[in-house]
Amino acid sequence: MAQVVDVKLRLAGPQDSERMLAWRNLPEIRRWMYTDHVISQAEHERWFAGALANQTRRYWIIELDGTPVGLANLADIDVGQRRAAWAYYLADPSVRGRGVGAFVEYFVIEHVFGELNLGKLWCEVLVENEAVWKMHEAFGFQREALFREHVWKDGVPSDVVGLGLLARDWAAVREASRERLKTRGLPV
To answer: Among candidates 85, 118, 90, which has minimal Cα distance to 102?
Structure first.
């Protein structure tokens, strides 16, 4: 029997500002972001001041057994066009491989298509981050684009995979995805 894993997402708040800055500046997180410079306190404060108030964004702190371990977010929420973009990261390497990312994926997809009633969720992933884009595909995302030399990392161009999930795609794989998580002891 799978061990039950206590994973939750809670809306980020002002108390999370310093944690988010520290996470974002970790080399293993910057490695997969579009921008990879170290973010200064002043730059972070300017961004954070508007981030949580922006109605086209949502930020959640990912918690495992009550401990913050990462961040998930929606961006470019467009109710008129019925779509949103998303991303997440696990800042604590010790939680990787335990199904936390899969739970986050399921939670965000359910939120987008259930609560927000949008028709499409999309994301962009560095082509080198194969584990992440393959996980998205396992949840029904389809590759829609390959953006060649889209991002420069350490002075070298990197390709980006564009992935999209339609509400009808999710309907076709939802139950199988849910069952996969349940067999891993995740709270779905």
So the answer is: 90
**Token output for 22:** 């520290």
Lookup: tokens for 23 = 């996470």
Instruction: Tell me how crowded residue 74 is: count the other CB atoms within 10 A of its CB.
Output: 21
Superfamily of domain 7-183: Gcn5-related N-acetyltransferase (GNAT) (3.40.630.30)
pLDDT tens per residue, range 109-150:
999 999 999 999 999 999 999 999 999 999 999 999 999 999
Distance of CA 152 to the CA centre of its chain: 21
Q: What is the pLDDT of residues 13-23, one digit of tens each?
A: 999 999 999 99
Q: How far is CA 31 from CA 36, 152, 163, in A?
A: 6, 11, 20
pLDDT band at 96 (very low <50, low <70, confident <90, very high): confident
